[in-house]
Design a protein that fits this description.
10 helices, two-stranded parallel sheet, alpha+beta
Amino acid sequence: MLELTKTAVLACLLILPQARAYAQSSELERRPTYTLEDAISLALQNNPDLQIAHERIGQAQAQLGEAFAAFYPQAQIRMSYEHTDNPSRAFGMIISQRRLNLDGSTNFNQPGGTDNYRPEVVATYSLFRGGQDYQAAKAAELGVEAAELQESAVRNQLIEAVTSTYYGLLASSEAHKVALNSIKAVDSELRQSKNQYEAGALLKSDVLSLEVQLAETQDAEIQAANAIELTRTGLKTLLGLNADEAFEFEQVSAALQIPENHESFDDLLNRAIKERPEIAAAYKRVEIAERKLSAAKGAHLPRANAYVSYGSDSKNIDFSTNRDNVTAGVMVEMDLFNGFGTSEAVKKAEHQLNEAQKAHTQTKLAIENEVKTAHLKFREALARLNVTRAAIASAEEALRLVNQQRQAGAATVTRYIEAEVARDKAHSRDIAARFDALRAEAELKKALGSWR
């Protein structure tokens, strides 16, 4: 029985690592794998910044509806109560209540306390307010358009951020692969060198140099692995995912199309001025400020309102058509002096208009600078890419020659490792240049408003 138990325990110990590996592989298979297009779609669906911009459109639309409310009649239901012993007021209440009695029973000089209850419906309609309602409605319409343009700008920025971060994740992954290959190569050479040293065919200094080189490659691998996680975390934030949610990206770096530079800066700038939603939104805000200034000036003009009231007066809470009455009329009013409030409101609107105009100029200058910077980075990345490709060819040829010299005994292990490290660094620089070119292209597209 004891032997059977030992056999079972031994079998479990042998099976456990395989079961754990199978579980891990199954978990990886269950994780969603995202392409760049998938990541962009998820970001457009979940990103909080874009959702906030969408809610601002809803706010602007509600503000437009609020502005148009001024063009509809306004109706209220009222219930008022008055008590007075003022003869003139009391006499008016008695007449309104249809209780006037001329038989001498009513003392008009001493009416005593008189109560009046009046339920009524009142409707008003604005006939003219100096154009304030019209200008406010037009400003609200422009506000909706500005909010939609701002959402378009957020969308453009978001897609660029997701694209650049995704390429950064691919670059980190490629750099990590290079670091792992370097560790594998240096570790293999180190084992062989230790055997040669023990056999007396190699110097101790060569072994120590390889150990130092191995430590450097391991340090590079740690940094590359950490860069992957940092970039992955940043991408999750853009996608609206929690930090603990699984995210795997599709390895397609070899099939990525390297962009080309064909357009001049002037052509790119003209495209950006026409396409960037920020410029259109800034101009909409100038128009909004102009409308608000006109509305503020309209407060100097007269205001006219029509009104109608239907109700009933009684000494208790009792509505009766025998005591109902209707009042209708038109009221015109105009401010002669309101403590300079209207003048100050006009000054405020003028300053807001100046601010909007300066903001429009600032936005245009910022976009011009952004296009110029993105264009220069794009050209630099493409130039670097050509240099790194030539460097890889030279590094590969140098490694091949040093390897031949080493096999012939004319080159030391240290020289061979130096050539191998130089080859790996050339590949790392090429990876960085390749993805820098793709990121620079994304920045240029964003500067042009291509993803609005």
